[in-house]
Amino acid sequence: MAAIYTGVVTVTGEGRNGGHVAADDGLLDISLAIPKEMGGAGGATNPEQLFAAGWAACFLGAVRRAAAQRKVTLTSTSITAEVTLNRGEDGEFGLGAVLNLEVGGVDGRTADELGAAAHQICPYSKAIQGNVPVTIRVTAVA
Hints:
Elements lengths: L8 E4 L7 E4 L5 E3 L15 H23 L6 E12 L5 E12 L3 H14 L1 H6 L5 E8 L1
Parallel strand pairs: 5-6
Antiparallel strand pairs: 1-2, 2-3, 4-5
Helix pairs in contact: 1-2
């Protein structure tokens, strides 16, 4: 594979617990905090939100690509990604995910097909395949 782009970020401090994230181009510059739901202070983003944002954006692009390949015209697209940090019985941490995809301008069967195709196209989906349980919920909207 030929490299197209490399995103470069540096995390300093305590990582998810009060760390800081900065991209080399200066466009991403944020603090990290443990969510209140996990006993932290909250008030800043966390790795699960960052991963969900990147994956959702990429997945939506993959939906659009799948539609274009099939010559399907979409009237709208939207996705809400839920990335959950879990702790297994062995005490180890893992991720789980739900992708809630809304596709406008197509019937339910076509929307489902586009969601499945996008999951095969999206580099984030490929990267976690077999490692993270994923549920894709697809809704066709008028």
